[in-house]
Specification:
The chain is mainly alpha-helical. It has 3 domains: 2-42 and 155-222, Orthogonal Bundle (Endonuclease Iii, domain 2); 50-151, Endonuclease III, domain 1 (Orthogonal Bundle), CATH 1.10.340; 250-306, Winged helix-like DNA-binding domain superfamily/Winged helix DNA-binding domain (Arc Repressor Mutant, subunit A), CATH 1.10.10. It contains 15 helices and 3 strands. Helix 3 packs antiparallel against helix 9 (140-151) and helix 10 (160-170) packs across helix 12 (192-206). The structure holds iron/sulfur cluster (SF4). Iron/sulfur cluster (SF4) binds next to helix 10. Residues 165, 168-169, 206-207, 212-214, 217, 219-220, 223, 225-227 line the site of iron/sulfur cluster (SF4).
């Protein structure tokens, strides 16, 4: 599959007779890294290689926008500087802190990951893919991000934006495995951290979903699409996932109840009102059961409590 990509790359660059794919990859890397030297965003998690801070930032960035993550990240790493610090805190404190970030299941996973890191890894975030993948809430993307951004491993980090960029580069829709292979293949051997951060920013700032700025794009020479014709990233693996509508959703109802619980216990009889769910007791009961199963709330004698207040 990589051969197809390389063939496409060779076809695109055939005017550069004699250079070959490796030489073109080097030229591409140089072009990207030159652009990076003046365009890389100044983000707080880029100022550290501390594996715990990197893991925290990546978990937060999984489903929340950069501008909302920034202040919460800074507050978090000041408050819980190590996995030990988080693991020895009350989970309910983390849940209160998590307000505004959304998707609180990530807080549960992060808390459980901290506990596992303390228990099985002597308090140190592991650096090996297989061990990272065993941590709660850590999938292939997050594991690779930690490997690169904390340990400078030579692997590609494939998020939604980078997947879109690679599909456009290749001129066709890509399967997840193939996109990962391409990302791994193209990583600059000497600067994997910078390469991956640069690809993130190029994809997020320039090769955007709706309005890619192809004129003057630093890697336009190696791109198969150029913004003309059907977008090859549509339908590509991991690229077109849409978030469901928030208004009226279970996510909104769950968030409302958890927010109410940060202020104090809520009687089950008042849960529907706290959630904003009208005339649907079955739905209210289901949402409470789900939150309980995820250890995000506790039920005690017809009263709901946040997280692990009983522990
Ligand atoms: S030329 Fe356009 S589509 Fe290609 S990588 Fe640059 S911005 Fe994206």
């Amino acid at each position: 599959m990589l051969l197809q990509y390389e063939t496409s790359l060779m076809a695109k660059t055939s005017g550069r007779a004699g250079k070959g794919v490796v030489a073109e990859k080097e030229a591409l890397n140089q072009a990207l890294l030159f652009w990076v030297s003046t365009s890389l965003r100044d983000l707080p998690w880029r100022a550290t290689r501390d594996p715990w801070a990197v893991l925290v930032s990546e978990v937060m960035l999984q489903q929340t926008q950069v501008n909302r993550v920034e202040p919460k990240y800074l507050e978090f790493v000041e408050r819980w500087r190590t996995p030990q610090a988080l693991a020895s805190s009350r989970f309910s404190d983390l849940l209160k802190f998590w307000q505004g970030l959304g998707y609180p299941r990530r807080a549960r996973n992060l808390y459980d990951a901290a506990t596992q890191i303390v228990k099985f890894h002597d308090g140190k975030v592991p650096r090996v893919l297989e061990e990272l993948l065993l941590l709660p809430g850590v999938g292939p993307y997050t594991a690779r991000a930690v490997m690169v951004f904390a340990f400078e491993a030579r692997v590609g980090v494939l998020d939604t934006n980078v997947g879109r960029l690679l599909a456009r580069w290749s001129g066709r829709s890509l399967q997840a495995k193939e996109a990962q292979q391409i990302a791994d293949e193209l990583v600059d051997a000497g600067r994997p951290w910078l390469w991956n951060q640069g690809l993130f920013d190029l994809a997020a700032l320039r090769c955007t979903k709706q309005n890619p700025q192809c004129v003057g794009c630093p890697v336009e020479e190696w791109c198969s699409w150029h913004g003309a014709g059907p977008d090859p990233s549509l339908g590509s693996a991991g690229v077109t996932t849409k978030q469901g509508r928030f208004q009226g959703s279970d996510r909104q109802a769950r968030g409302r109840l958890l927010k109410a619980l940060t202020a104090g216990p809520v009687p089950i009889s008042e849960a529907a009102m706290a959630m904003g769910v009208v005339n649907d007791q079955a739905r209210v009961s289901r949402l409470i059961a789900d939150l309980q199963a995820e250890s995000l709330l506790t039920v005690q004698r017809e009263v709901l409590l946040l997280g692990d207040l009983l522990q």
